[in-house]
Predict the structure.
Amino acid sequence: MEPAQITRQAIAKKEKEIDTLSAELQRERLKIDEKRDSIQSKKKAFTEMLQEEYEMAANILRHQEQDSSTEWQSLNQYIESYAIEADEASSEELKKLDREDEELLEEFFKKRRHLEWEIEDDCRRLRESES
């Protein structure tokens, strides 16, 4: 096989590697999106559960004959603290996923750039050998 044909095959192989990297990136980013959606839906479900618990406790407190201001204050503090914890935990997990996504993109662009440079070099050598 002549050198020009070998170079063309090398270029095609590197272009295929870029396509494979792109497909891999899409799969990995889809996984991250699914994790992100899962975190958000779990947070939403937890928030809804907190609201239901609050409504149940509030209903009991509304029907008490004695002064229940202390209980109302405690209930509101508990609900607020759980809501804050849920927000902080989900925010932290979402930040981790954002960092994972950024690292994935950086690695992809680094590998793709390297392959593109190699393709450019191969194309240059091919033009030189054909002239």
Notes: The chain is about 95% helix and 0% strand. Residues 3-130 form one domain. The mean pLDDT is 95.
